[in-house]
């Protein structure tokens, strides 16, 4: 009975685990605001000596409120000691010959909306914000509500500083920002969650099957018990080795009704409680299958 009590508890623990995983999966589903992230390809061109260097890379991401448009221009820094363009009076040292220009601004000091607006008011055609020092190449889609008319992308700190140092040295840098690929971070999160859920389900089922006690049903247990009783009863029946002169050897009187053979000296016979006897090798399997004497049908478990 103790085995029987294990089954429901294993059942309930498996169920509760699956339930918890289902809730986790549901919580990890994307909400309707789940936004795609658009990468920005920055085609950077600058001249060093007589050499024109051009590099194309997926260097940034578009801001959440940026138009997804191609924009190009010469890259211009905020004037003064501060590169964050938080001061509304910030000027940009725009070259005379440039028709279109992009502001390169450091993250921090004020909101993205604020600094993008400062550059937009000064006539920038696009804004490139580079991340905090120490963040390497990490980027994320900026939130900058209220600046929907100007392209704004974020690039990594290392790329930002590289451009900053070039421009500070007087190098004329132009950039073409192009719309790259769309990423759905919530989608990959969803797929990972789904795989985790499936793997956990399979693992739980495997564990459940492995730990499930093999409880035989009542009819199986009864059959086993009868078989054991029959074996025991057979073992208690008398055996005899026939020898010359035994009356059992009279072929007119006796032969084994299981194999229809006559008895010979040295044959081992089993004598049932009804006094009928048979070859041991013949009657033992018969009794295991039928429990009764082949001649008079007496039940060996009842006598
Ligand atoms: Zn026989
Ligand atoms: Zn009999």
Automatic annotation (TrEMBL):
Q: Give the matching CDD domains.
A: PA_GRAIL_like, RING-H2_RNF128-like
Which GO MF terms does the UniProt record name? Answer: zinc ion binding
Q: Name one GO cellular component term.
A: membrane
- Answer whether the UniProt record assigns the keyword Metal-binding to this protein: yes
Q: Which UniProt keywords apply?
A: Membrane, Metal-binding, Signal, Transmembrane, Transmembrane helix, Zinc, Zinc-finger
Position of the signal peptide? 1-34
PROSITE patterns with a match to the protein in the record: ZF_RING_2
> Could you tell me the membrane topology recorded for this protein?
Single-pass membrane protein
Which ranges does the record mark as transmembrane? 190-210
PANTHER family, per this entry?
A: E3 UBIQUITIN-PROTEIN LIGASE ATL42, RING-TYPE DOMAIN-CONTAINING PROTEIN
- Name this protein carries in UniProt: RING finger protein 148
The species this protein belongs to is Physeter macrocephalus
Q: Which gene encodes it?
A: RNF148
């Amino acid at each position: 009975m103790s085995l029987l009590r294990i089954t429901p508890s294993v059942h309930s623990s498996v169920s509760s685990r699956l339930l918890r995983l289902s809730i986790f999966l549901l919580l990890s589903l994307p909400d309707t605001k789940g936004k795609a992230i658009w990468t920005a390809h920055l085609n950077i061109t600058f001249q060093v000596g007589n050499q024109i260097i051009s590099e194309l890379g997926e260097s940034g991401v578009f801001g959440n409120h940026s138009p997804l448009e191609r924009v190009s221009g010469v890259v211009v820094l905020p004037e003064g000691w501060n590169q964050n363009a938080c001061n509304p009076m910030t000027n940009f040292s725009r070259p005379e010959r440039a028709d279109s220009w992009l502001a390169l601004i450091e993250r921090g000091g004020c909101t993205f909306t604020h600094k993008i607006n400062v550059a937009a008011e000064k006539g920038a055609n696009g804004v490139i914000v580079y991340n905090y020092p120490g963040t390497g190449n990490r980027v994320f889609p900026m939130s900058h509500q209220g600046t929907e008319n100007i392209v704004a992308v974020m690039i990594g700190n290392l790329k930002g500083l590289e451009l900053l140092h070039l421009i500070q040295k007087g190098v004329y840098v132009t950039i073409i920002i192009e719309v790259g690929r769309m990423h759905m971070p919530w989608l990959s999160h969803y797929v990972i969650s789904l795989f985790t859920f499936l793997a956990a389900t399979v693992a739980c089922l495997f564990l459940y099957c492995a730990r499930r006690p093999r409880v035989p049903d009542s009819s199986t247990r009864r059959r086993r018990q009868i078989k054991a009783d029959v074996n025991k009863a057979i073992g208690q029946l008398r055996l005899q080795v026939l020898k010359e002169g035994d009356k059992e050897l009279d072929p007119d009187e006796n032969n084994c009704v299981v194999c229809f053979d006559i008895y010979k000296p040295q044959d081992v016979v089993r004598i049932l409680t009804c006094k009928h006897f048979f070859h041991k090798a013949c009657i033992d399997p018969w009794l295991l299958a039928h429990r009764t004497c082949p001649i008079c049908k007496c039940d060996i478990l009842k006598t």
